[in-house]
């Protein structure tokens, strides 16, 4: 039994796994099969050289078809901050197994504070040499509850965190002027374009979100594509900016050529090289006031203090179902009726084209993990990439 589960886990993930911000408000929180997978990593696969219909909201493996549970939202306290857990697998966050496998780092392991690998940190797969070089990540928001209505023009970057992804617990600041979302909430997205080492891919993951404690009725303006503007602030796109769409077969919104100020090939990212300041993006409210303000969702600004949410409220309810989680993993090979179309293996292969991973490392890592945990719980470790 254990061996079979292990094999399933292995074949499902022969690496390619990178990082994503976990939260119960995310699409694909339970995986993409219709069962609950406490070890899912379906959202962490990077997007590279895909057509827009495939990369948009990670459609290539149907992440956008698996909304969060009713009532689960990423809450954005106006003027405050919110926290997510960046990890390579849900099993390595506080959101599975009571956080038993979570550490300060995204892969359940421990590393020195000044973790630095001159070639590239591949464990966890952070696409950087050290924290200073980490490219930066962002959340964007669209003021619609309907994920199919989200476009690059109404999805505006509202917060950026420089030098991420790095540690597991990561917080982002919310502009004080963020207006309330419509009745059913907003759609948010997370983006990351790594820089410097590894495959130059990108991330585009959907969330259900809502602004809490909103006092403003300002309106987020139409987002415009960011441009490369390192050391030339006047050239930067002003006002609300689109997410960065790069290195895909179509739907790209930025082009760069040549080298940056460090004499390295330009790599657009959520940092000052593309005109994104760190923290809340306070210049996005250029939209015309609609007059009729949307329904208010203020009042329950619970998580506004930011800090550590490592023991989230979902943890206890999850753990009581931990036993069925293993069964869910086992069933993962059979798509259920919940998935309208089975994941296409060609799309999946395309998505990871160019990433070469080492199966040997995966096996060694799994063997090590199994030894450590005595096989009590099927828990996968991420494999290091070979570039
Ligand atoms: C980070 O990595 C870069 C590139 O290898 C290196 O030049 C820099 O000194 C490193 N910084 C730290 C703080 O280790």
From TrEMBL:
Keywords: Copper, Disulfide bond, Glycoprotein, Metal-binding, Monooxygenase, Oxidoreductase, Secreted, Signal. It comes from the Eukaryota. GO terms for cellular component: extracellular region. One of its GO terms (molecular function) is monooxygenase activity. InterPro entries: LPMO_AA14. Residues 285-361 are annotated as: Disordered. The keyword Nucleotide-binding does not apply. The keyword Cytoplasm does not apply. Residues 1-17 form the signal peptide. Its cofactor is Cu(2+). It is found in: Secreted. Residues 289-321, 331-356 have a biased composition (Low complexity). Belongs to the polysaccharide monooxygenase AA14 family. This is Uncharacterized protein. It comes from Mycena alexandri.
